[in-house]
Amino acid sequence: IENNEQLVKEQSDILEKEKAGIQERDLEIIVIKNGDALYKKYKVQPGEFTVILIGNDKDEKLRTHELLLPEKLFAIIDGMPMRKAEMRKQKKQGR
Question: Which has the higher per-residue pLDDT, 67 or 34?
Answer without folding.
Answer: 67
